[in-house]
Amino acid sequence: QVQLVESGGGLVQAGGSLRLSCVTSGSTFDAIDWYRQAPGKQRELVATINSGDTPNYVESVKGRFTISRDKAKDTVYLQMNSLTLEDTAVYYCHAVRFLGWAKRRTDYWGQGTQVTVSS
């Protein structure tokens, strides 16, 4: 059974830092991402890391957030620095797997972890 379990969210003052963790189990994945969803807004992709450990970021977090992976621990991290009020959201770990010759796509989601940035 595939599971993604996030942790590390919380309340932090603007300018502060948090590190989110996503522990995966039950499979290997072609890519693992962090998404976020703020109240009243659509869920957006924040950062992604592929099987070759190449990261990519949405423009608004470049230079502030870092996605990384510890393969020995089956864990993906999102280090978030210089947090702003606009970073307040529920952060979700997401993983994708492509199977077989047809590259059938399967998506998996964690339960989410709340990040609240205060002024």
Give the arrangement of secondary structure elements.
Elements: E1 3-7, E2 10-13, E3 18-25, E4 31-37, E5 44-50, E6 55-57, E7 65-70, E8 75-80, E9 89-99, E10 104-109, E11 113-118
Parallel strand pairs: 2-11
Antiparallel strand pairs: 1-3, 3-8, 4-5, 4-9, 5-6, 7-8, 9-10, 9-11
Please give a structural write-up:
With 119 residues, the protein is mostly beta strands. It is built from no helices and 11 strands. The strands form 2 sheets. Strands 2, 4, 5, 6, 9, 10 and 11 form a 7-stranded mixed sheet that branches. A 4-stranded antiparallel sheet has the order 1-3-8-7, with no helix packed on it. A hairpin with a 6-residue loop joins strand 4 and strand 5 (44-50). It starts with a strand and ends with a strand.
Radius of gyration: 14 Å
Q: Roughly how much helix do the residues carry, as a percent range?
A: under 10%
Task: Outline the low-pLDDT stretches.
Answer: none
**Approximately what portion of the residues adopt beta-strand conformation?**
over 45%
The computed structural class is mainly beta
Query: How many helix segments?
Result: 0
Q: What is the rounded distance between the termini?
A: 41 Å
Largest sheet: 7 strands, mixed
What are the main properties of this structure?
119 residues, mainly beta, four-stranded antiparallel beta sheet, 11 strands
Concise description?
It contains no helices and eleven strands. It has 119 residues and is mainly beta. A hairpin with a 6-residue loop joins strand 4 and strand 5.
